[in-house]
Amino acid sequence: MEVKILxxxxxxxxxxxxxxxSAGMDLYSTKNTWIIPGQISVISTxxxxxxxxxxxxxxxxxxxxAAKHGITVVNAPGTIDSDYxxxxxxxxxxxxxxxxxxxxGNRIAQMVINRVEQINWLPVETxxxx
Length: 130
Hints:
There is one protein chain. It is built from one helix and twelve strands; from the N terminus they run βββββββαβββββ. By secondary structure, the protein is mainly beta. The strands form four sheets. A five-stranded antiparallel beta sheet has the order 2-3-12-7-9, with no helix packed on it. A three-stranded antiparallel beta sheet has the order 5-10-8. Strands 1-6 form a two-stranded antiparallel ribbon. The longest helix has 7 residues, at 63-69. A hairpin with a 7-residue loop joins strand 2 (16-17) and strand 3. 5% of the residues lie in helices and 40% in strands.
């Protein structure tokens, strides 16, 4: 599947899968910043995407950042809807007791593309059949 991407920061790499078996693509920071313990930081990725209807992008933490530094995505998994066209920004927090430096170009999160369905509710008057 091809997805349109607008590269707002042309010096950074486009999101990419690290291996053939990777489910998620790495996203990169556009700036240098510090995340102090307990702080929430919104980090720009320098990209905007145009997903087809029926798809979403999930933003997930990177396990290495979480395990080694206590850095995670606050609203994990974050959802990028198919009709969102703005810059993708990552909401990170520091759960450790030490400051963590994010450098421009660092991998800060993963993005996984998933198919989604919308439903219609069918109200019932009695119990649900399984």
